[in-house]
Write a structure and sequence with these properties.
This protein is an alpha+beta fold and 166 residues long. It has one domain (8-161). Helices cover 57% and strands 13% of the residues. It contains four helices and four strands. It has helices spanning 8-40, 76-93, 99-122, 143-161, and strands spanning 49-50, 55-62, 125-133, 136-137. Helix 1 (8-40) crosses helix 3, helix 2 runs antiparallel to helix 3 (99-122) and helix 3 (99-122) runs antiparallel to helix 4.
Length: 166
């Protein structure tokens, strides 16, 4: 078996490692922030925390998907399965990606895994960042959501730019 630095086996290991490292870091940041805010700050049973005139920490249990859609369903298994399908699709699609796109893919996968963990641990996704301006509120979100959104936006930006590597 050829394992020189430029062999296909070595390159696929590097690619897989880039995705896994980004995903694990995303999950760790998400789960640490949730634990800290829920239990150390006390959001799980405490009042909202005002940080600025446009940013609060609140406790919102999202039982649905994005922005609470389908929250009336008990769809923990369906949503976990859907996340799994999307993650597997991303892994297959990422076979041709460069390092920057692999890191974006890992962030997306890590965000999805972080939210799936919440569904099984708490029965819902813990959202707590509340951004509001002039009486308008963005739906509450968490670090996993930020990983997914930033990963997708960066991946789209790199694709549109035709970025080859970093």
């Amino acid at each position: 078996m050829n394992s020189s630095p430029n062999s296909p086996l070595s390159c696929s290991r590097i690619r897989f490692t880039a995705i896994i490292v980004a995903a694990v870091l995303s999950v760790l940041c998400d789960q640490f922030s949730k634990y800290y805010l829920l239990f150390d700050v006390g959001l799980i049973d405490g009042p909202p925390v005002t940080l600025t005139s446009f940013f609060n920490l609140v406790m919102v249990w999202n039982r649905g998907v994005s922005f609470g859609m389908f929250s009336g369903w008990d769809a923990k298994w369906m949503l976990a399965g859907l996340s799994g399908i999307i993650c597997c699709t991303l892994l297959v699609w990422s076979r041709t990606f460069d390092r920057a796109k692999l890191i974006c893919t890992g962030a997306i996968i890590g965000g999805a895994v972080g939210n799936v963990i919440d569904r099984f641990v708490y029965g819902a996704v813990a959202d707590f960042f509340d951004v509001h301006v002039a009486g308008y509120h963005w739906p509450a979100f968490n670090v996993a959501d930020m990983c997914i959104v930033c990963g997708v936006l960066m991946l789209l930006w790199l694709e549109m730019r035709g970025q080859k590597s970093i």
